[in-house]
């Protein structure tokens, strides 16, 4: 009896954080820094900062296939390959092999995963934008989805808080559509980007071209160097892992801070699949896991639980967390769990060439581009064909040998021509908002994975609102490039991509004002299970058109602050 | 500057941001944490085809003021890429192309291609460049193929029920999932492929990056607006 009690005590913490990606790392940092003893559970293997970035310092010629994808890799990483991600030898070890952890597609879905410590914080795109005031009222305004239970003013201080620590590079552009943050210095634009900026802003009132805002230390500040991070070296090899810790990842940023408290325990290779809900206590008491290697089951206990397993896996865990109280999944009285899947649709835009600026070039490789914030359905720019809007990401560069390879010719002059900087080109692609729609969903199928756990089935698409929006994304791009004097403007609208392509999955356990229509309340607490918090992409109520990770960070820091205060008030 | 020097130099400029053991680990090189073993493809060129391929790559990317494709071992790279990244029918098509070049040389000059003077080699490859264009014109365009594939249409309108839990066949070049191998992308004409792989193999080689182009391993800063210097080469990456 005593032995059992001791054993249980050894498995008991103040808080459990499920997942170690962008939001899990923040939960661990905030909770430990506020004095809690925290257990972080990661389903994949350990991945050590710097020493587990095997390709980070390799030169192009050290990859025998030179970026070409081996047939076996295209098959085993089929979702990566299909969505346009390149499972090449330089980076595929950072991605989960799709055949190892299968999923079912009632409608095609691209689910790109990173099952290891740090999750997708290692390979994320790093673009970090605040949602604006109207993003938080969009659902209320046009009636799609539920109303956000919070407004911009509720999250603004938390945006500042996470920006300062994460280190977001950006310019204070003073635009209501893209609120400014607490930035480290902006990166520079190159000549063609400055040219396009001038042309677009002169010809289109209300349209702006700004430098992108990545979570990259353009210039590391004391708060960053104190944590062991250094300034960006402008190699543009971020996806391989940064040995300088220049971009924000769990490994470079939140994990060292959490470890410094001495209150964090990390256990890897444990797949959390269930929150244990105690019907007598009417709250959660722990989580159940299975070891991915030994397949041993195990329970861990805590006063509060943060689910940060990524949108789909957080919903997957909640769906498996059935109890007398929650027969349809944890917090799922509304039947909204697993519904309202959102992403950003992309692949529509334009590119063009420019004959001038022949004597201009650039130095260094910038892991960032330019951004054209939303202008459609903003201010006076009303559209008939669709609601909400889109922004563009893009960049300009001088053509190199890659473009030359498809030109005619060979021999000495051909070779010589490829060694010189080519014509300038400029390219922008839209990122469009998707609407919350309860018929876009994921479920537990009756098929099981190798651990005997249910395999996820996706049944989600883009929705009709994207059709008109994509046309505008393409045509508006072309009209801006032409106004900027670019030639050979080519448009594209690749309608062949599936939801998930943006790797911005959102919405499977949305926040809301009413337990009848949402899964979480305004503090990211699960309705009916107040000591369980969900602060990853699952919590999102609308998708905005900006990259979402910064919002997950801010929601997490905010919820962790609330959780610790509630714990101290003995309310949890 | 080799890798060790480059890393150590950056370590010095960065002060204490990286620990010595971390640096040592990177310099030593590591295996990916998810290394996978695969049964290698049986594809191999015949010895004569190997010599011929080397010769063709050198005509495409010759030695000029900088070393050419042979010095950069482009032929070896192409063989490896063909072996691992292309399907048997494309491999065969490539070998047929090599044999056709040799046959053309024998027919026109009664000599092996490798023995021809450069102008005759160039003339033959020009013929194959033209042939590749004709061949490409006869094939349906990639976009049309994609549009007809039900798996790659806009998700909202795709037919339901494409239940997939197994490995999927993905076209290595386009990334499109194909259900039926016969529906794969049409074969790439010989000259188009050998030229594409020669250009890739050359400019991603150490010689290509560091001699034909300018390679800065660790730029350390970004400057968006820089005057192009007289005779400046393009950046390698």
From TrEMBL, chain A:
Q: Give the GO molecular function terms.
A: flavin adenine dinucleotide binding; oxidoreductase activity, acting on CH-OH group of donors
- The segment(s) forming the Glucose-methanol-choline oxidoreductase C-terminal domain are 436-555
Q: Which cofactors are required for activity? A: FAD
Pfam families the record matches: GMC_oxred_C, GMC_oxred_N, NAD_binding_8
Q: Which residues form the Glucose-methanol-choline oxidoreductase N-terminal domain?
A: 105-344
Instruction: Cite the entry's keywords alphabetically.
Output: FAD, Flavoprotein, Oxidoreductase
Q: Does the keyword Oxidoreductase apply?
A: yes
Q: Which family does it belong to?
A: Belongs to the GMC oxidoreductase family.
Its name, as the record gives it, is GMC family oxidoreductase
The source organism is Spirosoma profusum
TrEMBL record, chain B:
Tell me the leader sequence span.
1-24
InterPro entries (UniProt xref):
Gluconate_2DH_su3 (IPR027056)
Tell me which domain of life the UniProt entry assigns to the organism this sequence originates from. Bacteria
Keywords per UniProt: Signal
Descriptive protein name: Gluconate 2-dehydrogenase subunit 3 family protein
Organism of origin is: Spirosoma profusum
């Amino acid at each position: 009896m005593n032995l059992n009690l001791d054993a249980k005590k050894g498995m008991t913490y103040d808080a459990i954080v499920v997942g170690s990606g962008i939001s899990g790392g923040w939960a661990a940092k905030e909770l430990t820094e506020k004095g809690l003893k925290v257990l972080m559970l990661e389903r994949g293997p350990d991945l050590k900062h710097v020493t587990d970035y095997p390709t980070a310092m390799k030169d192009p010629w050290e990859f025998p296939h030179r970026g070409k994808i081996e047939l076996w890799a295209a098959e085993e990483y089929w979702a990566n390959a299909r969505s346009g991600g390149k499972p090449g030898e330089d980076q595929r070890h950072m991605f989960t092999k799709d055949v190892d952890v299968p999923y079912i597609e009632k409608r095609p879905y691209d689910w790109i995963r990173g099952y290891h410590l740090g999750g997708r914080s290692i390979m994320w795109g790093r673009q970090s934008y605040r949602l604006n005031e109207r993003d938080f009222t969009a659902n209320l305004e046009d009636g799609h989805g539920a109303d956000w239970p919070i407004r911009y003013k509720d999250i603004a201080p938390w945006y500042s808080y996470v920006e300062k620590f994460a280190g977001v590079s950006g310019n204070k552009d003073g635009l209501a559509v893209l609120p400014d943050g607490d930035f480290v210095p902006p990166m520079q634009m190159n000549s063609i980007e400055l040219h396009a900026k001038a042309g677009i802003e002169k010809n289109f009132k209300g349209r702006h071209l700004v430098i992108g805002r990545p979570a990259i230390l353009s210039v590391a500040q004391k708060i960053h160097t104190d944590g062991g991070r250094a300034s960006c070296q402008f190699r543009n090899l971020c996806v391989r892992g940064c040995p300088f810790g220049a971009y924000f990842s769990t490994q470079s940023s939140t994990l060292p801070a959490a470890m410094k408290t001495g209150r964090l325990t990390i256990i890897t290779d444990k797949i959390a699949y269930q929150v244990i809900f105690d019907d007598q206590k009417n709250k959660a008491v722990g989580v159940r896991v299975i070891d991915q290697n030994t397949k041993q089951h195990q329970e861990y206990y805590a006063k509060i639980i943060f689910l940060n397993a990524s949108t789909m896996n957080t919903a997957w865990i909640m769906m498996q967390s059935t109890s007398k109280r929650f027969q349809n999944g944890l917090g799922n009285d509304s039947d909204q769990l697993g519904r309202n899947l959102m992403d950003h649709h992309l692949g529509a835009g334009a590119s063009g060439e420019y004959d001038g600026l022949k004597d201009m070039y650039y130095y260094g490789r910038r892991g960032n581009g330019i951004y054209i914030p939303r202008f459609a359905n903003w201010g006076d720019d009303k559209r008939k064909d669709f609601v909400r809007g889109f922004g563009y990401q893009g960049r300009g560069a001088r053509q190199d040998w890659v473009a030359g390879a498809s030109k005619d010719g060979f021999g000495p002059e051909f070779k010589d021509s490829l060694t010189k900087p080519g014509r300038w080109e400029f390219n922008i692609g839209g990122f469009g908002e998707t609407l919350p729609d309860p018929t876009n969903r994921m479920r537990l199928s009756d098929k099981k994975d190798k651990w005997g756990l249910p395999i996820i089935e996706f049944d989600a698409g883009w929705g009709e609102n994207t059709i008109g929006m994509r046309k505008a994304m393409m045509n508006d791009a072309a009209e801006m490039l032409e106004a900027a004097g670019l030639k050979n403007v080519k448009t594209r609208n690749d309608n062949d991509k599936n939801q998930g392509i943006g790797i911005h999955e959102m919405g499977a356990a949305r926040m809301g004002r009413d337990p009848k229509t949402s899964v979480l309340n305004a503090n990211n607490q699960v309705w009916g299970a107040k000591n369980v918090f969900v602060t990853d992409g699952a919590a999102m109520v609308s998708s905005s058109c900006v990259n979402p990770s910064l919002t997950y960070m801010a929601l997490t820091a905010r919820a962790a602050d609330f959780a610790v205060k509630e714990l101290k008030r003995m309310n949890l | 500057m080799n890798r060790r020097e480059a890393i150590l130099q950056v370590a010095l400029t960065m002060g204490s941001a990286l620990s010595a053991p971390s640096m040592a680990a990177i310099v030593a090189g590591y295996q990916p944490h998810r290394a996978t073993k695969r049964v290698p493809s049986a594809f191999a060129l015949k010895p004569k085809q190997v010599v011929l391929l080397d010769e063709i790559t050198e005509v495409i990317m010759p030695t000029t003021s900088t070393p050419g494709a042979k010095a950069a071992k482009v032929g070896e790279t192409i063989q490896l890429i063909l072996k691992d990244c292309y399907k048997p029918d494309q491999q065969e098509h490539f070998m047929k192309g090599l044999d056709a070049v040799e046959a053309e040389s024998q027919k026109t000059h009664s000599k092996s291609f490798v023995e021809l003077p450069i102008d005759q080699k160039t003339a033959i490859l020009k013929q194959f460049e033209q042939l590749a264009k004709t061949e490409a014109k006869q094939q349906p365009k990639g976009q049309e193929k994609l549009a007809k594939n039900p798996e790659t249409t806009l998700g909202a309108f795709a037919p339901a029920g494409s239940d997939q839990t197994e490995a999927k066949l993905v076209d290595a070049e386009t990334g499109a999932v194909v259900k039926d191998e016969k529906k794969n992308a049409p074969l790439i004409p010989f000259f188009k492929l050998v030229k594409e792989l020669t250009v890739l193999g050359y400019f991603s080689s150490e010689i290509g990056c560091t001699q034909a182009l300018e390679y800065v391993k660790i730029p350390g800063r970004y400057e968006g607006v820089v005057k192009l210097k007289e005779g400046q080469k393009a950046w390698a990456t």
